Amino acid sequence: MDLKQLRAFLAVAETGNVTRAARMLHLVQPAVSRQIRLLEDDVGAPLFERERYGMSLTRAGQALAEHARRALLELDRARAEIAGVDEGVSGLVTLGLLPSSIDMLSSAFASAVAAEYPGIRVCIAMGYAGTLLQWLQSGEVDAALLYGIRRSADIQTSPLIEEPLWVIGPPRSGLRPSRPVPLAGLAGRRLVLPSAPHGIRTLVDHACAVANVALDIAVETNALSVQRSLVLGGQGLTVLPPIAVADDLRSGKLRGAPLADPALARTIVLALPAGRPTARPVRCALELLVREARRAVVSGSWLEGRWLGE
């Protein structure tokens, strides 16, 4: 088993096709096929199901893919750190951000890293809290911003921001920040909500169960962009932190009002793996991330956010 085989394997796994994988790797197709055959001979199991319209991972392939991604990521981290060993702080930092906060933080964070630690290379991945937690546990990201999670032996967290949940709708909804909407007021209204077990959906479902409120959920989606599009299209109201649609609220494309009786809020935390040391480049990058998050809250750019960090 060597790096060429692993890279070919992951390329085929991602594209589902040897031809596309060869194009991605700038190789000829027979060379990629040969690397896959050698790898399958080495592990002693087929890694792909050869189907009419492509190739899909077998159970053995799925298991190997998880380890292969981590192995190549660790090598990339090592290369980045070695390449800048004489240039101060250097290395690869992988960070997971939530869809609702990535636009707010990514550019300012990347600019700060480039200005203060040019030897650090940043990789930013977007995902919902459950996905980010899995990546954090598997080592695919060094740190992540998550919704508040339960205490865990393998994850350490620091609370950063508390933000309320608002009812969001199109302009004709008449929603206004000065007029909170009681949870019971959502009964009988068409709603577009995240699919379970999304963190916001869990908060809303729990509050409804306690208050004995039945909701009319017209559409469920696990994509923030689709959620926004459906509300803009008049398919119903939704529940989101205002930062998730800040530009639309400022421009008047969407209207919003705080959710009340009960008021619901979520806490965003900085999460790190508890079982492994945090490398110096990661610590340096996270200091800048926290600084930029605090700056966004204090300046008011992070709508309705309340700073909890030190």
TrEMBL record:
<keyword id="KW-0238">DNA-binding</keyword>
<feature type="domain" description="HTH lysR-type">
    <location>
        <begin position="1"/>
        <end position="58"/>
    </location>
</feature>
<protein>
    <submittedName>
        <fullName>LysR substrate-binding domain-containing protein</fullName>
    </submittedName>
</protein>
<keyword id="KW-0805">Transcription regulation</keyword>
<dbReference type="InterPro" id="IPR036390">
    <property type="entry name" value="WH_DNA-bd_sf"/>
</dbReference>
<dbReference type="InterPro" id="IPR000847">
    <property type="entry name" value="LysR_HTH_N"/>
</dbReference>
<dbReference type="InterPro" id="IPR005119">
    <property type="entry name" value="LysR_subst-bd"/>
</dbReference>
<dbReference type="InterPro" id="IPR050950">
    <property type="entry name" value="HTH-type_LysR_regulators"/>
</dbReference>
<dbReference type="InterPro" id="IPR036388">
    <property type="entry name" value="WH-like_DNA-bd_sf"/>
</dbReference>
<dbReference type="Pfam" id="PF00126">
    <property type="entry name" value="HTH_1"/>
</dbReference>
<dbReference type="Pfam" id="PF03466">
    <property type="entry name" value="LysR_substrate"/>
</dbReference>
<keyword id="KW-0804">Transcription</keyword>
<comment type="similarity">
    <text>Belongs to the LysR transcriptional regulatory family.</text>
</comment>
